[in-house]
Design brief:
Length: 462
């Protein structure tokens, strides 16, 4: 068979290419509007011309002596990694003020250390795995998490040069004379090699996003078409591309569980970083919707709840994210707490009778969104309300869950990071088939890899 394919394969390929060209010609003649839409959709991006790694002079392989130097210096760099990344962010954000439009200050010093922690963990994991990077490259693994987040934020290739230069400056500042020219050259090459891998992966994700129905890359203007109050301090916001937009009137394809990123401008300086919100409209709908909990002291969620009205314009990036179903055909258990219910909305619809149990923990029925959706789903439910019933320990919650649904399920969890860590650990202990989590913050700083049943190279994570 292989020999037949080898012999006739080129013929079939030529014939297929000719048929595709003929099909394209037919679409062009019979339905020129559709042909223009297809061509336009492929190109629709607001990212600007700097795309992909071609022409940047980035290394596509590391020299063997670079690999040896990184492996040898990893134990020296690891204990100082957080000092390096804190210095890196401080220097970079002072010198490149426009980057404040990408980095949420609530994730950085002095408010929190999420950004330096996530970058430090990724640098250490990279150095430790430098001889075999495959654990970092697994599906839904660390590189996938980083690249999806970067695409959601519209990161573009020239910014990698800025990151490289500032990271190298921070390494020099923190490690001082320990950084010989040979060590500096090795780390520089390793960072540029990683940059190339990320840029190439991100370019393929951007292309994927552009080619989906209703797809685009970069920030696109949308109009708020509906706002609904779903529960105390929780509102859903629906968006449509306005008339004249290249994606006006299209159906929006994405994978259930993915998040859109929303950019608003409360300060009028364009420097508020986009925030991510799980899409709660179904894939293929004529609008995109997200569901937002108002966070005390939270800049964007408060602005959305208090200031945004129907008819306002916002900017969105296309849905990205790796918290997606392993399979809609396999039995699953959905476990959420608070606003962590949002990914479960599309999971519940896609899984149907394969949801063996939907577990939700909330303060009270009036603070829980989507109760009606789950009640109507016919799926077995387990609701816990802490105001009336007190806090149920993760151990007890998992015991009850496993008693009702068994362990042979894919478990999808979304809620506060520490709760998810405890619930995941109990599920893994109980022998759960697979466990995946989504952090509404920094996945890599607060939880490590999303999958909990196989090893994660992020040893430093919570
Ligand atoms: C993948 C993903 C999916 C998500 N999906 C959803 C979703 O479906 N629904 C949802 O509601 N959220 C979701 N989130 C969370 C969302 O992206 C935002 O993080 C959330 O809305 C808070 O943003 P904010 O701008 O209101 O708060 P921020 O301004 O980012 O503040 C965050 C926290 O920092 C504190 N803080 C901010 N500034 C200061 C300061 N100067 N001093 C002291 N403390 C400060 C705030 O009080 C707040 O507690 C998701 C996040 C991710 C990563
Ligand atoms: C090789 C270089 C890079 C590495 C190793 C890296 C690593 C990371 C990691 C680990 C995260 C956290 C992801 C998560 O927890 O889910 C992250 C987030 C982020 N990255 Fe990068 N990154 C790199 C380059 C860049 C570049 C070039 C930019 C563009 C300026 C950028 C902008 C961001 C932003 C804005 C976030 C979100 C930060 C936040 O929480 O507010 N990164 N990156």
């Amino acid at each position: 068979m292989d020999r037949l394919l080898a012999y006739f394969g080129p013929f079939f390929q030529t014939a297929r290419a000719a048929l595709i060209r003929l099909g394209g010609l037919a679409v062009l003649l019979l339905n020129p509007k559709r042909a223009v839409a297809i061509l336009w959709k492929r190109q629709h991006s607001t990212l600007g011309p700097a795309r992909g790694s071609a022409g940047m002079g980035l290394p596509s392989a590391m020299k063997p002596e670079t690999v040896d130097t990184i492996a040898a210096t990893a134990p020296v760099v690891a204990p100082r990694a957080q000092d390096i990344t804190k210095t890196f962010y401080d220097g970079m954000l002072k010198d490149h003020k426009s980057l404040l439009a990408y980095f949420n200050p609530a994730h950085n010093v002095p408010i929190s250390t999420l950004q330096p922690d996530a970058l430090a963990a990724s640098v250490v994991a990279y150095a430790i795995n430098i001889r075999d990077l495959s654990p970092l490259l697994v599906p839904k693994g660390p590189v996938a998490a980083i690249c999806h987040r970067h695409c959601a934020l519209c990161v573009v290739p020239p910014q990698y040069v800025v990151v490289h230069d500032n990271l190298m400056a921070a390494v020099g500042k923190i490690l001082g004379n320990a950084v010989t020219p040979q060590i500096a050259a090795a780390w520089s090459e390793a960072v540029l090699f990683l940059a190339k891998a990320c840029i190439d992966t991100e370019e393929s994700l951007y292309k994927m996003a552009e080619q989906r129905s209703g797809g685009w890359s970069g920030l696109e203007t949308f109009e708020v078409v509906e706002i609904k109050e779903l529960a105390k301090d929780i509102k859903s916001f629906s968006f449509k591309a306005p008339r004249g937009s290249p994606i006006f009137g299209q159906a929006f394809e994405f994978t259930g569980g993915q998040y859109l990123s929303l950019k608003v401008d409360p300060e009028g300086d364009g420097l508020t970083a986009p925030r991510h919100y799980t899409v709660t409209s179904p894939p293929g709908a004529d609008h995109l919707q997200c569901t937002v909990k108002k966070i005390q002291g939270g800049k964007v969620s408060t602005y959305l709840h208090e200031k945004v009205t129907v008819g306002d314009k916002v900017q969105l990036t296309a849905p990205f994210g790796i918290f997606t179903l392993e399979s809609a055909a396999e039995p699953a258990v959905l476990m959420s707490a608070g606003i962590g219910v949002t990914p479960m909305v599309n999971f519940s619809k896609a899984l149907g009778a394969n949801v063996k149990l939907a577990v939700h923990v909330d303060r009270a029925p009036e603070t829980a969104a989507y109760r009606d959706l789950f009640a109507a789903s016919g799926q077995p439910l387990l609701e816990k309300y802490t105001k009336s019933g007190g806090r149920v320990s993760p151990k007890e919650l998992v015991r009850e869950t496993v008693e009702k649904a068994g362990v042979g399920n894919n478990f999808y969890i979304c809620g506060p990071p520490s709760w998810m860590e405890e619930v995941s650990a109990e599920l893994v202990k109980a022998g759960a088939k697979s466990v995946e989590t989504e952090v509404f913050g920094s996945q890599l700083a607060q939880s490590g890899c999303p999958f909990k049943t196989s090893g994660c190279p992020f040893k430093g994570a919570a």
